């Protein structure tokens, strides 16, 4: 009996050593799938990457195919579908099996709303089948949580690169304004502070041409209005889309929506804020605004010069995205993930093996260096890790993208990231946030400008648009538009 006990103990020690000893491999979840390297599984990936991002993706895919793919029996081919909109349409047509549509790819880039819609039709694989808890624990929790569409533990969307929002400022033109008016960068930490600075900037630029009244310039613009609503409400303690298991309760609380109206619509129609071209970085380039809030990925497009009658070089400042005064420090979490089409175990397993490799620390950092997106693993989200891979691989990274990544990484400990849960008609409802107030502000600003051009003082022309009654009328229309979109 004693000999058998010793033998059993030795066997247990040997088994434990095989699992935890030097050089032991981390547990992997295969769902019983075994691939044959002599007969590799072919995977197609649809994405919306273009330019440098596509080149970086293609290079990583080629490396995977030549190494791990060859060893395990997986071959990957990537196809750009053009823009995000083009990709969404291609996926939608494929899911609907429209005439002429291509078959569903094995993997595709997608935002959560689109992935949720596809999943509701039973077309997405449950990725939790192929990832261990240990493996998922290596990723930033909020990024993984976005891929759970319900409380059933099934994972449908996997993070590959994420972004948040920052504020970028034309530092060259900021300097003389700040010196002349006593304005400070610290004021730009809150939305209300931005409004105060923008009013000051309008007055300061208006004074440059005393013979021409009411010709001040806008200071600030915003790229994503839905983020303004969603994150602004969250900072004030409310989720405007309170979604649970795909069902949403709308919470457009009037007092908080009024604050958002006061701090976007009002300064916009008064000329302190502006939006002119497609993106606010374009408006900085033309000199129509001095600063904007936008995605970290937009930092690469922040101009090196202002092009007006005479071009001049400009420098930049990267600041945290402003928050609502006295609000909680929430920032937006955004960026497409990868979904895997429901098919057979071999293709689903192979797809997950590629995603694990693509998001490994070194590979993920190589990819995000071309995009100013943030890596998705915990061990990759430090400046030290970023600097290490840049040096080791001799990578060239856009200075603005580097500074942006470092700023986000260094502020990560003091920032919480938030994204709404998926729900039916989420895409359409979010579009109400994107366009309802911004379109109204733009149309009303044009009407006010026409009155000013006809000789009406701007304050007088603006007055009817910024009353309590004006807010009430818009708020009623806004709530109705949200309800219609959510329940269509």
How would you characterize this protein structure?
- By secondary structure, the protein is of the alpha/beta class.
- The chain is built from 20 helices and 15 strands.
- The strands form 5 sheets. Strands 2-1-3-14-4 form a 5-stranded mixed β-sheet. It has a 4-stranded mixed β-sheet with strand order 6-9-5-12, with helices on both faces.
- Helix 10 packs across helix 18 (426-453), helix 15 packs across helix 16 and helix 18 (426-453) runs antiparallel to helix 20.
- The protein starts with a helix and ends with a helix.
- The relative contact order is 0.14.
Summarize the structure in short.
The protein is α/β, with parallel strands linked by helices.
Shape: globular
Number of helices: 20
Q: What structural class is derived from the secondary structure elements? A: alpha/beta
Rg result = 26 Å
The neighbouring-strand order within the major sheet is 2-1-3-14-4
Average pLDDT value? 92
Primary descriptors:
five-stranded mixed sheet; 15 strands; four-stranded mixed sheet; 20 helices; 488 residues; alpha/beta; disordered N terminus
Give me the secondary-structure topology:
Elements: H1 2-20, E1 41-47, H2 51-66, H3 68-72, E2 74-80, H4 84-95, E3 107-110, H5 112-120, H6 133-136, H7 141-145, E4 158-159, E5 165-170, H8 171-181, H9 191-206, E6 220-222, H10 225-235, E7 241-244, E8 247-250, H11 254-262, H12 265-269, H13 280-285, E9 291-295, E10 305-306, E11 312-313, E12 316-320, E13 330-332, E14 337-340, H14 345-358, H15 361-368, H16 383-393, H17 399-411, E15 416-418, H18 426-453, H19 458-462, H20 468-486
Parallel strand pairs: 1-2, 1-3, 6-9, 13-15
Antiparallel strand pairs: 3-14, 4-14, 5-9, 5-12, 7-8, 10-11
């Amino acid at each position: 009996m004693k000999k058998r006990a010793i033998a059993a103990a030795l066997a247990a020690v040997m088994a434990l050593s095989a699992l935890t000893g030097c050089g032991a491999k981390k547990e992997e979840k295969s769902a019983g799938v075994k691939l044959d390297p002599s007969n590799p599984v072919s995977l197609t990936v649809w994405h919306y990457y273009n330019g440098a991002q596509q080149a970086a993706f293609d290079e990583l895919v080629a490396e995977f195919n030549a190494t791990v793919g060859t060893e395990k029996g997986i071959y990957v081919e990537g196809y750009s579908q053009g823009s995000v909109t083009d990709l969404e349409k291609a996926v939608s047509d494929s899911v609907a099996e429209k005439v002429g549509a291509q078959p569903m790819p094995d993997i595709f880039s997608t935002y959560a709303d689109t992935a949720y819609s596809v999943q509701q039709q039973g077309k997405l694989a449950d990725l939790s089948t192929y990832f261990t808890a240990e493996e998922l624990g290596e990723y930033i929790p909020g990024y993984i949580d976005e891929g759970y569409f319900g409380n059933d533990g099934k994972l449908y969307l996997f993070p590959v690169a994420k972004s948040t929002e920052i504020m970028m400022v034309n530092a060259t033109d900021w300097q003389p304004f700040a010196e002349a008016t006593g304005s400070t960068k610290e004021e730009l930490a809150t939305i209300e502070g931005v409004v105060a600075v923008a009013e000051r900037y309008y007055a300061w630029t208006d004074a440059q041409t005393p013979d021409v009244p009411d010709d001040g310039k806008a200071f600030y613009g915003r790229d994503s209005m839905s983020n303004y609503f969603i994150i602004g409400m969250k900072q004030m303690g409310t989720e405007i889309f309170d979604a649970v298991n795909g069902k949403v309760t709308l919470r457009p609380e009037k007092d908080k929506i009024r604050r958002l109206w006061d701090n976007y619509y009002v300064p916009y129609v008064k000329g302190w804020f502006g939006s002119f071209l497609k993106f606010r970085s374009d408006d900085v380039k033309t000199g129509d605004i001095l600063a904007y809030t936008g995605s970290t990925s937009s930092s690469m497009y922040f101009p090196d010069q202002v092009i007006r009658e005479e071009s001049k070089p400009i420098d930049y400042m990267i600041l945290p995205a402003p928050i609502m005064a006295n609000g909680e420090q929430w920032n937006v979490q955004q960026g497409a993930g990868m979904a895997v089409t429901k098919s057979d175990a071999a293709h689903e397993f192979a797809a997950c093996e590629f995603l694990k490799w693509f998001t490994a620390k070194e590979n993920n950092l190589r990819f995000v260096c071309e995009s100013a997106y943030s890596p998705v693993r915990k061990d990759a989200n430090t400046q030290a890790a970023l600097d290490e891979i840049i040096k080791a691989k001799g990578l060239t990274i856009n200075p603005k993208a580097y500074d942006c990544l470092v700023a986000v990484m260094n502020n990560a400990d003091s920032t919480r990231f938030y994204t709404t849960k998926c729900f039916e008609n989420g895409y359409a409802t979010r579009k109400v946030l994107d366009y309802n107030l911004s379109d109204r502000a733009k149309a009303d600003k044009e009407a006010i400008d026409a009155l000013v051009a006809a000789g009406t003082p701007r304050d007088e022309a603006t007055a009817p648009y910024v009353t309590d009654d004006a807010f009430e009328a818009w708020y009623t229309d806004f709530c109705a538009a949200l309800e219609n979109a959510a329940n269509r």
